[in-house]
Structure formats: structure tokens, C-alpha cells
């Protein structure tokens, strides 16, 4: 008994320590997607309208979250890191509460420890994970975790309020990405499969909680649609969230190609990530349990259904298997790992041997992949900057380098924003023909002269809408005459990047630049300034 108490304390302490280490990341710059969303939200705070004045294809959930974060923590890149840290804390606590409801305190503490320690961004990703921070999946995980907590509590106490909570939080996940709607059926199925035995008088009420959950799931999407309708943005939102995303997901997608790429992505993670490794072993154990006992317990059942829904959501995202898509699989993997490892002492000898072997393999992967060194190196650099031991320029070069023709450069983005801010007035408009530098609007606090915050929305003109073309953008910019036109060299071998790099040489772009002069070159950015006397800007 005393050993278990000490073990629980040690596990909780490791989870707290892992979350505490993440605090150093508030010094880190914005990533590519984070810069885009920050720029959009900064425009919204200055009365620009989402999808009409600042355009991006995500649903409003990520913008609501970023707006709240910047309003609370200030308009600095640190706010994005704080959002990510808080989401990690919330998910860790939710996993503890979920597992504690279904299992022992030791298994719950193990789940929290595994999740907090093995999802450290500096361990999982390059460049300390700043590119994967505070993305839609980060907050979808929190919403699904809240829904799952309501589901497991409903199993203990049949309450329509808890059933409504399942639907309400699952519906909130949809506001971040529509495909997150797949989590609700998985949770409802778990509620049905693992419901407590009820008396004959209670059986007619089995359907009522499910109906309440489904109705509650419509609340957050309905309020979002109402908000868009009140601002007159429903047609614009439909094009962005529905039409463009359907086009984007279908682009380059084939079932055979995706099956091969998806299996490779899973296999790679099983070889390099302890949570995915134990997830693979745990799946085999569950199959064995089903064959032996014809059933599995509620805790692994939740992990299977939650994880299966996560796999479906990843699949629906389309052919591009970005690292961020797999974030939502970590909570069910942590639950599955804790079940396999934490409940081994109560299982037969074969299960104990499998669990111990799996734990040893996890430790081996951590050592081979230099877990302590990678986490320490990242946190040390962040702390050295805070203490003044590392210069700002040198620190920023950790995130993409500088002048190396590799695309993203945090240092170049900051220099670009500083130059624009110093050479423009607050009300001046600017426009970037680029991708990696989309944070210039946020960092310089200058509004975009055109709604498209990234050039790949209209170059090449693949989306079948006449407004999503270079000609349409040039026409709008010719009329609005922003103070600066900025061209970014992407340095990529893709056809899209080659088209973007060649933009200044195109005849229609040369005509656009006629009243402009080359004012400065900052790494991969060429800044053209509107010549004095050529007329002012129009909104």
C-alpha cells in the first residue's frame, strides 16, 4: 500500500515537472500556421471580418481561441505558447479524471505521467515543436477529453446533464474542424456498450440520454453559425469551410496511395515514439483479450473507440499527413499504455511479461532518440535567452536559420516586421505574396490590403472560383494601393513555389509594381514601397 502511494506521488510529480518545463517555451517565436492565425485575429481585433477581410479555410474555433488568448495574455507570440501549455495541463488533468473514474489511482497517475512526459514538443518534433503548437488539434483534444469525462461519469451516475455535456463538448470540437464530429458517435457507442445494468423500469429511458447528447452537440455549431449570420458572413464562410476544404481534401487523394502513406506514417511512429509503440502492442493484447474472453473492460474499450475515431478523423483530413493531425491520437494512446502497463500486476504471467517487455522497449526508444538531451537543449536555450546569456538574433536562428535558402526563418520574419513597422504608419496597409512570412501583419501590427494571407490560396489558381486567381488579386491591389508589396522567395522544388518565386517577372505583376520602387531586401523578402505622389491607399 505504501509503495503504491509513493508510486502515485512519483508519477504525479513527473507529470507536473514535464508541464512545468514547457513554461520555457513562451520565449519561442510563432510558427507558420500560428503566424497566419495570429495575423487573422489581429485583423479581426481591428474590425476586419473573418473570411471577408482576412481569409483562411479553418472554421472559426481556432480564431475564437486565439482571440481569447491574445486578449488575456497580450498581443505577443508568448500568448500562443500559453494557450498550448494550458491545453496540455487541461488534457493531463482530464485524462487523470477519466481513468480514475474507471480504474485505480495508480493507473490514472500513470496515464497523466505518460501523456505529460511523452508529448513534450521538444521531444516529438524538430525546432522545439514551435510549428506544431496551439493548432486546431490541440484544442480538439481538450474538447473530446471533456466529452469523454462526461461519458465516464454518466456511466457512474445517469444524469441528463452529463449526457448533455458529452454532446456539448463534442460539438465544440466541431467548431475547430468539422471532421471532429466523428468523436461523438464513438463516445455514444461506448456509453451504450458499457452502461450499467438497469432495472426494467429504467430501460425505456436508455434512448433519452443519447437524444439529449445529440441535441446538445448542435449548440456550439449553432451559435457559430448564428454569429456568422449576424455579421453577414455565411456565404463567405461556406466557401472557406465547406467548398475550399472539400477541394483541398480531395486534391491528390487516392485510396491506395493514402493507405500506403498512412501505414508508413503509423509504422514510423511505432519505431520512434514510445506511445505509438505501446499502442501497437496494446492493440494486439486487446485482440487477444477479445479472443480469450469475448469482451474487453471499459477502460481499454474507451481507448479503442477514442483511438479509432482519431484515426478516422486523421483520414478525413486528406492525403497530407502533417504531424499536427496525429496530435489527437495521443490521449487514447496514453490511456491504452497506462492500462497495459499499470494493470499488469493483476493479470496472468503472459500479460505481465508482455507489459514488462513493452516498458523496456519504450525506455530503449527514449534513450536511442535522446529524449533527455533534446528536452534539455530546448529548455536551456529558452532560459538562456530569458537570462540574457543568448542574443535574440542567435536564438531566433534556431528556428529555421537565416540566409540558407530553406524557406521559413524566424529571424527574417522578425526583421521584416520591424522594418515594416518602422517605415509605415499605423493605418497603412501592406500585402505579402508569400507563405512563411504571413505573421508580418501580426508582428508589425499592420492590416493586410487583401483578404488572402497566403499566396498559395490563389497561386496556382486551382480552386474553381474567379476570386481565387492572381488576376483578381492584382486587380484589387491596383485599386487599393497598399504602402508595401512584399514578395517572398520560397526556395522549394514544388510547382507552386516555383510559380510564387517567379511572380515579380510576370507582366501583370510588373504593371502592378509600376508605381512602386524596391525599398529593401531582407533575407528572402523583397519590399516594394509605393512611390510618394502616386496616390494614397484605399481600404
Q: What's the short story on this structure?
A:
With 539 residues, this protein is mainly alpha-helical. It has 24 helices and five strands.
Structural write-up:
- The protein is mainly α.
- It has 24 helices and five strands.
- The protein has helices at residues 2-21, 32-45, 61-73, 78-102, 105-118, 121-124, 136-156, 160-174, 183-193, 207-216, 219-230, 234-250, 255-272, 274-293, 298-316, 330-342, 349-368, 371-387, 392-396, 410-422, 440-444, 470-480, 495-501, 507-512; strands at 429-433, 447-448, 484-488, 516-522, 525-530.
- It has a five-stranded mixed beta sheet.
- Helix 21 links the parallel strand 1 (429-433) and strand 2.
- The longest helix is centred in the N-terminal third of the chain and has 25 residues, at 78-102.
- It is globular, with a radius of gyration of 25 Å.
- It starts with a helix and ends in a 9-residue tail after the last strand.
What separation lies between the terminal Cα atoms?
A: 70 Å
Q: How can the largest sheet be summarized?
A: 5 strands, mixed
Classification by helices and strands: mainly alpha
Q: In which range does the helix fraction lie?
A: 55-70%
Q: Which strands sit side by side, in order, in the main sheet?
A: 2-1-3-5-4
Number of helices: 24
**Strand segment count:** 5
Strand content: under 5%
Shape: globular
Cα radius of gyration in angstroms:
25 Å
The mean pLDDT is: 92
In terms of per-residue confidence, which ranges show pLDDT below 50 for 5 or more consecutive residues?
none
Following the backbone from N to C, one meets helices and strands in this order, namely: HHHHHHHHHHHHHHHHHHHHEHEHEHHEE
